[in-house]
Structures are given as structure tokens and as C-alpha cells.
Design brief:
Blueprint lengths: L9 E2 L6 E2 L21 H4 L10 H15 L9 H22 L1 H11 L16 H22 L4 H38 L8 H33 L1
Antiparallel strand pairs: 1-2
Helix pairs in contact: 2-3, 3-4, 4-7, 5-6, 5-7, 6-7
Length: 234
């Protein structure tokens, strides 16, 4: 994913005038610009790359840009304008959905900052051995609960074991929320201070580790809730 700061100019296909990379319309002829090259969702919506987002402001930006890009306004326009309106409308919806969701927002930030969450052959890099061991043990417990249920264990006993298994999961989720709040505050401060990107690297790696850990915990929670649903149906 290109860094928006690396894209210095975009040319209008209609008049050839150069425009800033975050502009939606040509400053000279006012035609809608092609989306061939754009930086990122944050710049597209006119937002800094901060993790704290005012959702009401985000909704307002969506409505404003939706009206400006809507294909209905370009029915009689040139083919390139109609295509540009479709591209920008689609990109706007993708940007809105991503930045509205806190976890997706963090994952997207990592991507545009060059620290992608998913890398070939190294999914567990950065996750502590202690957490991996605990996840392994909880998975074993869930397997044991499932086997006992299938063997005829009472729903009461099964629910009690599931409740006990959920305690460490909830603890990890609470810790995740606390750490995310802290890292969000620290990241936003670095952005406000315009700290060079290289000096932000350690914090980005911390966010990446946090999201990797969250994925393990979310998978455990999904497995537990599935087992709880199976127990309820019995």
C-alpha cells in the first residue's frame, strides 16, 4: 500500500492540471478526478492517521462525499467521469467501513505504515510463548468439554466448565482493551507531534503484536461460544 505522502501530484485527465493527491476534484476545471493513484483511507476522508476517530464526524464526511461522488450525478458526464464517480464511491464505502471499526482501523494503519499484520510464514511472530501455551491449554479444555458433552455430560456441568474456561478469555479481552487504549493514546501523540516514521516503528510493532494476540483470543472466544450454543440446544 503506497504512502500518501509519497504521491506528490495527480493529473486531471480532462485539462491536465496537477492536483494534490488528496483532492477529489480538479482545482481548475472542477471535474471529478480519477482514483488511479491515491494514498490511503485516512487521506481520502481528510483525516490524519490517528487511531482516535470521531464517529459522528466520520458519518458526516461519508454523507458529504457520498453526495459529491454519487453516480446519479454523472449520468450525462463523460465516460471517464462516470468511471471516476464509481471508483470514488466504492473506495469511500471501503474507507468508511474500515475506519469505523476500531480493530480494522488499527490493522489498516499497520498496512499503510508498512507493518502488515499478515506475513507469509510468520503468523505467530511477536506473540509471547506464555500466551501461546495458555491458548493451547484452553483449546485442550474446550476439546475435553466437547467430548464430555457428547459422551452425555449434563448441561449444568458443561455450562459450569464453559464459564470457568471463559474467565481467562475475558481477562485477556479486558487487558487487550486497556493496552489498545494506551497504544492509541501514544500513537496519536506521535502523529500530532509529527514524529518521523522511523521513530514510530516500535509502537507500530507493539500494535501488531497486540492484534496478533487478539486474533488468538477471539478464536478461543468463538470456539467457546459455539460450544455454549451446542449445549443450549441439547
Amino acid at each position: 500500500m503506497p504512502d500518501s505522502r509519497a504521491v506528490s501530484i495527480q493529473a486531471c485527465k480532462h485539462c491536465g492540471t496537477g492536483a494534490p493527491p488528496d483532492a477529489h476534484f480538479c482545482p481548475k476545471c472542477e471535474k471529478i478526478l480519477s482514483l488511479a493513484r491515491h494514498g490511503d483511507y485516512f487521506a481520502f476522508l481528510g483525516l490524519p492517521r490517528k487511531l482516535t476517530v470521531d464517529l459522528q464526524d466520520l458519518d458526516r464526511r461519508l454523507r458529504t462525499l457520498s453526495r459529491q461522488f454519487h453516480p446519479d450525478y454523472y449520468c450525462n458526464a463523460t465516460p471517464s467521469e462516470r468511471l471516476a464517480s464509481l471508483e470514488r464511491s466504492s473506495y469511500l464505502n471501503d474507507a468508511y467501513r474500515t475506519l469505523r471499526d476500531p480493530s480494522a482501523r488499527v490493522e489498516y494503519l499497520l498496512e499503510v505504515e508498512g507493518v502488515p499484520l499478515k506475513r507469509r510464514g510468520g503468523a505467530a511472530n511477536g506473540v509471547s510463548p506464555e500466551l501461546l501455551e495458555e491458548v493451547f491449554e484452553l483449546n485442550e479444555e474446550l476439546d475435553a468439554i466437547r467430548e464430555a458433552r457428547l459422551a452425555g455430560a449434563s448441561p449444568t456441568d458443561t455450562r459450569a466448565r464453559l464459564a470457568a474456561a471463559r474467565v481467562p478469555i475475558d481477562r485477556h479481552l479486558a487487558e487487550y482493551a486497556r493496552r489498545l487504549e494506551d497504544l492509541t493514546r501514544r500513537w496519536d501523540a506521535l502523529v500530532e507531534q509529527d514524529v518521523p516514521r522511523q521513530q514510530r516503528r516500535d509502537l507500530l510493532e507493539g500494535l501488531k503484536t497486540l492484534l496478533l494476540e487478539r486474533n488468538y483470543i477471539n478464536n478461543l472466544l468463538a470456539a467457546l461460544e459455539k460450544e455454549a450454543a451446542e449445549t443450549t440446544e441439547c
